[in-house]
Amino acid sequence: MSSSPLPPAGADGWISLFNGRDLSGWYTMLQKSGRGVAEQRQIVAIEDGMLHILGNELTAEPAEAGYIATNPEFENVHIRVEYKWGVNRFPPRTLTKRDNGLLYGLVGTDKVWPTMVECQIEEGDVGDYFLVGGIRGVQDRHDNGLFGEGLTANGWTGAARPHSDGNASPEPVGGRKIKDGNFEKLNDWNVVEIIWQGDRSAHIVNGRTVNTVSMLQQPDPANPGKFIPLTRGKIAIEIEFAEIWYRRIEVRSLA
Questions:
Q1: Could you give the CA distance from residue 86 to residue 208 in angstroms, rounded to a whole number?
Q2: Rounded CA gap, 34 and 49, in Å?
Q3: How many CA atoms, within 13 angstroms, populate the side-chain half-sphere of residue 152?
Q4: What is the distance between the alpha carbons of residues 196 and 204, in angstroms, rounded to a whole number?
Q5: How far apart are the C-alpha atoms of 90 and 62, rounded to whole Å?
Q6: Which of 61, 120, 159, 191 is the one with CA 20 to 30 A from 80?
Q7: Which residue, among 101, 108, 153, has the nearest Cα to 129 in the 3D structure?
Q8: Is the pLDDT of residue 104 over 80?
Q9: How far apart (Å, rounded) are the C-alpha atoms in residues 225 and 208?
Q10: Which residue has the higher pLDDT, 92 or 166?
C-alpha cells in the first residue's frame, strides 16, 4: 500500500496517518514559499490532538494556497477524514465560500497545484471531483442519485456500471464532476470518505455516496501525449484560504 513504513492497523483494519502530536509522515507545500514553511508560520499546526489549518493570525495580507501531503504513496485504499470548519477566512477570499479539499493520487512534481484528484470540501460542494494537472476520467451514471449501487466499504463488486452518456466506450475528460446531493453540516463535524480501487473512486459524505468516477488516468511521464491509469499516489489536505480542523485522517487497505 505504501513505499515507507506506516503505523500498524487497528483491529478494524484502519491505519491512522495523523498521530495528533506532530507532522510525522507529512510535509507542507505553499505556492510561493515552497516546502516546510507552513508549519513555521503556524499556517499548519497541531492543537488539542487535531490538525489545525489556517489557525494563524488573520491579517490583511493575502494568504498562500498550498497543501500538506503524505510522504508515502497509496493504492487500493479506503480513505476517511473528519473535519469541521473554523471561523477565519483569509484574503483574497474573505467573502467567498469556505474552501478546502481532500487530495489523492498526487503524483509528480510538488507545486500548487500538482497532478492529482481532489474530493472537494467546500461549502455546498462537498464531494465534487476536480481532476487537476492533466488527470482525466469518466463520471459514472447516476440515476436519481444512485451512485452507490454495487459499492461496499470494501470496494465494488461486479462489473462497472454504465457511464453517464450511455456510450460503451466513453472518452475520459478532465475538469470538474459535480456531486449529486448535499449532505455536509456547516457547523459540526463531517466525515468524508474516498474508496479508491484501481482506476475508479467514489466520494462519500456523511455516509452518502455522492459521486463516482471510472477510468481515472494520468499523463504518462514516459510518453508525452499518452495516458496511463491513475492507481497510486500520495494523499494530501489543501490549505486554501479558510480555517479548518481535522481530527481524523486514516486509511484502510482494500487489497
A1: 23
A2: 25
A3: 5
A4: 11
A5: 7
A6: 159
A7: 101
A8: yes
A9: 36
A10: 92
CA distance 167 to 184: 32
Per-residue pLDDT tens over the stretch 128-180? 999 999 999 999 987 777 788 889 999 998 766 555 555 556 789 999 999 99
| Contact in structure between 40 and 28 (CB atoms under 8 Å) | no
Instruction: State the cell numbers at 45.
Output: 499546526
- Which grid coordinates are listed for 32? 510561493
CA distance to 18, 25, 82, 173, per residue, from 7 (Å): 10, 10, 19, 36
Distance separating alpha carbons of residues 146 and 210, to the nearest angstrom:
8
How far apart are the C-alpha atoms of 60 and 171, rounded to whole Å? 45
User: φ, ψ for residue 248 (rounded to 5)?
Assistant: -150, 130
Neighbouring residues of 75: CB distance < 8 A, sequence distance ≥ 6: 1, 196, 231, 232, 233
225-248: per-residue pLDDT in tens? 999 999 999 999 999 999 999 999
Q: Tell me, what's the pLDDT at 146? A: 79
